[in-house]
Design brief:
Layout (H helix, E strand, L loop, with lengths): L20 H15 L4 H9 L12 H12 L4 H10 L8 H13 L8 H11 L4 H9 L4 H21 L23 H7 L28 H5 L6 H11 L8
Helix pairs in contact: 5-8, 7-8
Protein name: CCHC-type domain-containing protein
Pfam family, one: Retrotrans_gag
GO molecular function, one term: zinc ion binding
Length: about 250
């Protein structure tokens, strides 16, 4: 089964001081492999962008790289990358940024690459103190990629344990405290009646203090004077007059 070629973009090399040429060669090799360019001349044509006046000035890709190093590579670029990697520390960076920086510096050292054990120890020693660093020192991975992958897994497990323990719970309802008797208690009616305000010793008849209603001497108007004579009431008066009329309708 033939695998289709993959197109990878390569960042342009500008020859900056902080832009090692060896690191750009790594990107170049990865893009050439993905495009499945196996002919050396074809590799050079693609790498140089077909902008040369003489298309056969480079015989292969290695010759092309050597000429680029002579022209554009800053002095002691690999030495600087090696020194920066050996003193690399995580500090305020997150784990992903720290791992990417470590990979970038290691890939920039091509001529005399750092051995795998030194890469692993330097990466683990640069981690911040915590459970991730302790776990890596317990397992001691063999390669830098394995150490980075194990550190990412440990960080994911810590986040899962931290946020997975907080289960969403419904809001707790405040319990209402009632100090009085139960509403269904038989004695609740007596207690409620006893809590009603009293008249402070005043008479229920005249409303004055100093005596009770049965000893009150204030004369209240009689019911007949208040409501008037019974015969003057409109309803009953008409009924009485009707009863006095003769049954045959002749009062002469």
């Amino acid at each position: 089964m033939r695998v289709a070629p993959l197109k990878l973009d390569v960042s342009p090399y500008r020859g900056g001081e902080n832009e090692p040429l060896a690191r750009w060669f790594v990107e170049l090799d990865a893009a050439i492999t993905a495009r499945q360019l196996r002919d050396p001349i074809q590799q050079v044509f693609w790498a140089y962008g077909k902008r040369l006046a003489e298309p056969h000035c480079f015989y292969d890709l290695d010759d092309f790289k050597r000429e680029l190093k002579k022209a554009f590579e800053p002095p002691q670029s690999e030495f600087r990358a090696r020194a920066e990697f050996l003193k690399l520390r995580q500090g305020k960076y997150d784990l992903h940024s720290y791992a990417q920086r470590a990979r970038y510096l290691v890939s920039s050292i091509v001529n005399e690459p750092i051995d795998a054990s030194t890469q692993v120890v330097t990466f683990m020693a640069g981690l911040n103190d915590g459970p991730i660093r302790n776990q890596l020192f317990r397992e001691y991975p063999k390669t830098l990629d394995e150490a980075i992958e194990r550190a990412m897994q440990e960080e994911f497990s810590i986040k899962q344990a931290k946020f997975g323990g907080f289960v969403a719970r419904p809001p707790r309802q405040q319990a209402t405290t009632y100090n009085g008797p139960e509403p269904m208690d038989i004695s609740f009616a007596d207690v409620t009646a006893s809590r009603q305000p009293r008249n402070d010793g005043k008479c229920f008849r005249c409303g004055k203090p100093g005596h009770i209603a049965r000893n009150c001497k204030v004369s209240l108007p009689s019911q007949q004077a208040t409501h008037g004579p019974r015969s003057n009431r409109p309803g009953r008066g008409r009924q009485f007059e009707r009863s006095q009329q003769p049954k045959n309708g002749n009062d002469q």
